[in-house]
């Protein structure tokens, strides 16, 4: 019988980190041992971590260099108490990693909050990014605000439910999936593993609080500015892979992206939910591989300004 401890066998990757302000910022760096493979940067959302990308890494690391981050407060990164867990700070952390590792010709793969964080970093360092693959995300003020998310933001009940009882991450195990047969005990344990105490769940709650419900919220302006940058970023190849049964990042979010990136390619997965990669990683690996092959990078232009 499968044990919950088996999640570690699903994540057989070597850890790396950089120091950001005295805190360890964890990432994976997997790929061929020789040569100079193209770089794929994998950016997770809330309440996941780099474990979410394990099947993509396993399926593509024979051909590509895959870097998967853990945002501060998430996964195997440090979880400081006194920290500014905001979109702007997460974006700056990612941009700093890209600069420190001197990444060029990056293909961004991003999900959930990772879309805004990854695109924000690309807006800071546009010359370093060549292609974009986005999964059920947003990079604009939210077009709708689900009631179940609003409940998680309430000052007393929300903090107790999300940070105390871990209900946000636990509910996602069921509510973000369509094919529940794939949510084995080991997968469930892996998704929840870093979030085992009140302190270790603080970033989950702060992500929820950082969703701008009104224009007065500081992150509203950050997202509004990022939306204005989408058309410029959209001059590079874009692929959207969307779980069409997502109740949070609904098809309306996809349609809003497409108004800014009209030449983008789209894979709509009618039988997948918000955790689209958990639902359909086999089809996704195939489609991403095809997208990368169809849009080769002109290596002579490395470092050219976009």
Can you describe this structure?
- There is one protein chain.
- This protein is α/β, with parallel strands linked by helices and 306 residues long.
- The chain has one domain: Alpha/Beta hydrolase fold, catalytic domain (Rossmann fold), CATH 3.40.50.
- Helices cover 39% and strands 17% of the residues.
- It is built from 11 helices and 8 strands.
- It has an 8-stranded mixed β-sheet, with helices on both faces.
- β7, α10 and β8 form a beta-alpha-beta unit.
- α1 runs parallel beside α11, α2 packs across α3 and α3 crosses α9.
- The radius of gyration is 18 Å and the shape is globular.
Defining traits:
alpha/beta, 8 strands, disordered C terminus, Rossmann fold, eight-stranded mixed sheet, 306 residues
Q: Which CATH C-level class is it? A: Alpha Beta
Class from helix and strand fractions: alpha/beta
CATH architecture grouping:
3-Layer(aba) Sandwich
Secondary structure tally: strands: 8
Helix content: 25-40%
Question: What is the average per-residue confidence, as pLDDT, rounded to a whole number?
Answer: 94
Number of helices, where a helix is a run of at least 4 consecutive DSSP H or I residues: 11
What radius of gyration results from the CA coordinates?
18 Å
- Secondary-structure element sequence? EEEHEHEHEHHHHHHEHEH
Strand order of the largest sheet: 1-2-4-3-5-6-7-8
Strand content range: 15-25%
User: What characterizes the major β-sheet?
Assistant: 8 strands, mixed
Terminal-residue CA separation? 53 Å
Query: How would you sum up the global shape?
Result: globular
CATH fold assignment: Rossmann fold
């Amino acid at each position: 019988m499968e044990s919950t401890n088996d999640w570690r066998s699903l994540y057989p990757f070597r850890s790396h980190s950089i120091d950001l302000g005295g805190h360890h910022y964890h990432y994976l760096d997997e790929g061929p041992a020789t040569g100079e493979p193209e770089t794929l940067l994998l950016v997770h959302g809330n309440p996941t971590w780099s474990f979410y990308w394990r099947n993509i890494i396993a399926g593509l690391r024979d051909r590509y260099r895959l870097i998967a981050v853990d945002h501060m407060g998430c996964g195997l990164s440090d979880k400081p108490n006194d920290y500014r867990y905001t979109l702007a700070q997460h974006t700056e952390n990612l941009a700093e990693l890209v600069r420190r590792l001197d990444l060029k010709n990056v293909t961004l793969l991003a999900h959930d909050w990772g879309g805004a964080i990854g695109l924000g970093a690309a807006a800071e360092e546009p010359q370093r990014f060549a292609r974009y693959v986005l999964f059920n995300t947003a990079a604009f003020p939210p077009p709708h605000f689900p009631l179940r998310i609003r409940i998680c933001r309430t000052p007393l009940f929300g903090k107790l439910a999300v940070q105390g009882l871990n209900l946000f991450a636990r509910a996602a195990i069921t509510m973000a999936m369509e094919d529940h047969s794939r949510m084995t005990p080991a997968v469930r344990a892996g998704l929840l593993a870093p979030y085992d105490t009140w302190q270790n769940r603080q970033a989950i709650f702060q992500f929820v609080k950082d969703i701008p419900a009104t224009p007065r919220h500081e992150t509203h302006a950050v997202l509004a500015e990022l939306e204005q940058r989408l058309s410029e970023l959209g001059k590079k190849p874009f692929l959207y892979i969307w779980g069409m049964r997502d109740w949070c990042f609904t098809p309306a979010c996809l349609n809003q992206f497409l108004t800014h990136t009209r030449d983008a390619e789209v894979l709509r997965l009618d039988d997948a939910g918000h955790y689209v990669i958990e639902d359909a990683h086999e089809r996704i690996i195939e489609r991403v591989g095809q997208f990368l092959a169809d849009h080769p990078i002109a290596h002579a232009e490395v470092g050219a300004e976009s």
